Amino acid sequence: MNYFLYRRRRLYCEDVPLAALVRRYGTPLYVYSYATLAKHYRRIADSWKTMPVTIAYSCKANSNLGILKALRKLGGSVDVVSQGELHRARWAGFKPSQIIFGGVGKSDEEIEAAVRQRISLIIADSLDELIRISQISRRLKTTARVGLRINPDIDPRTHPYIATALRTGKFGTAMADVTRVLRRARRLPNLDIAGIHQHIGSQIIRLTPFIAALKKTCRLILELRRLGLHITLLDIGGGIGITYRNEKPFALEDYARRILPIVRDTGCRLILEPGRVIIGNAGILLTRVLYRKRIDRKTILIADAAMNDLIRPALYNAYHEIRPVIQNRRKIFGDVVGPVCETGDFLARDRALPAADPGDYLAVMSAGAYGFSMASNYNSRLRPAEILVRGRRVYLIRRRERFLDLIRGERPGQ
Questions:
Q1: pLDDT tens track for 377-414
Q2: What interhelical angle do 207-226 and 175-186 show, nearest 10?
Q3: The predicted structure's pLDDT at residue 115
Q4: For residues 75 and 58, what is the distance between their CA atoms, to the nearest angstrom?
């Protein structure tokens, strides 16, 4: 569900015509709908009303301060995976008690920042990391509240690059080692071992993998309790998929309904880490067609947005719907490509597309998650501006980069 709709053949974001935004702000341009992200957040919150839950938005999906601030005001907490994201969370107004720090390879500097700020929970990936957190906490004469990420060895049936709970992957502690690791960690000073964390992957549209993983994890928690290790927090991660093309993800209400009976017996407070499911369909990327050419039976639309603006198609062969900003019924077969000097620089390939001529504008849909947050300056291209629309109001939440931004921090050699 989103609030990008046609009115009299013109594509709108809520009550603002997108044609007006490109005239004012240019392209490429990211546009986000507040009503869409708020609707998704509230659906999640309403689904879990019968059990105490912390909804920690996974800010790696989209870490713009405007987005973070909006979600904080809706009542959310935040999940960060780097010191940069920790700073973003604080700048957006989140209190330390609203921040969870995950991720695999935290540096001493990152651990120290999290411990000094007394954030709600640090998710350790291994025994070695727990030892490091203990050492840093002891030096700082404080106690860190920690959880351990486990690897339940579940195949989530998603793209292999975003499957994070396979035995051969880099994430978490193997189930067979968890008891040994936590018994050792219990003897470490300056640690409050409070939680178990799992996250099996991203863009998962079937409930089965979530249920299988949680059954394993909950059995583990009950076993740990019998051994005297009292876990009070269960972080079940994120990974809920959205519709990009013709996927039919499970309903958020069904997710809660099926999972609640599994986790209730643990007595733990739940932590959720939704990211894509909140912001994915709340954002689009607008681009202008520069040129049009024919190659054999295909039409190639060369646009001003590229893989540096939205890398998902090149990285995952991901599908994003393409809509015309001014609706028409004509179709072509071909590609939408960008100006970057790579064959993999495409936004759509070998498929039916809306017919467009040079100067026309296209909307790349479902680009709110892992769009700008994965953007780069490859080919020394400027990153786009970002706009947040709320009803008729328009907020510039990131200005378009300028050429001096490209060399900020650089120093020429002798």
A1: 999 999 999 999 999 999 999 999 999 999 999 988 76
A2: 40
A3: 98
A4: 14
218 has catalytic annotation: no
**DSSP label at 144?**
E
On whether the CB atoms of residues 364 and 322 are closer than 8 A, the answer is yes
Residue of 330 and 164 predicted with greater confidence: 330
What is the pLDDT, as a whole number, of residue 299? 97
Give percent of the chain above pLDDT 70: 96
Residue 289 and residue 189 in one domain: no
The answer, yes or no, to whether residue 39 has pLDDT greater than 80, is yes
For residue 28, say if its preceding peptide bond is cis, omega within 30 degrees of 0. yes
One-character DSSP codes across 332-379:
EEEEEE-SSSSTT-EEEEEEEEE---TT-EEEE-S-SSSSGGG---GG
* Spatial separation of the C-alpha atoms in residues 105 and 123, rounded to whole Å: 11
Residue 347 lies in a domain: yes
CB proximity list for 76: less than 8 A, separation 6 or greater: 41, 55, 56, 57, 98
Q: Are residues 141 and 241 in the same domain?
A: yes
> Is residue 164 within 8 Å of 199, Cβ to Cβ?
yes
Distance separating alpha carbons of residues 224 and 60, to the nearest angstrom: 31
The closest of 299, 379, 393 to 345, measured between CA atoms, is 379
Could you tell me the CATH number of the domain that includes residue 200?
3.20.20.10
Cα gap 321→344, rounded to integer Å: 18
How far apart are the C-alpha atoms of 63 and 32, rounded to whole Å?
Answer: 13
What digits encode the pLDDT tens for the residues 137-188?
999 999 999 999 998 877 655 545 445 445 566 788 988 899 999 999 999 9
Q: Are 35 and 387 in contact (CB under 8 A)?
A: no
Q: How far apart are the first and last CA of the chain?
A: 56
For residue 259, pLDDT over 50 is answered with yes
State the pTM of this model: 0.94
The number of folded domains in the chain is 2
Query: Which of the residues 59, 218, 268, 341 is marked catalytic?
Result: 341
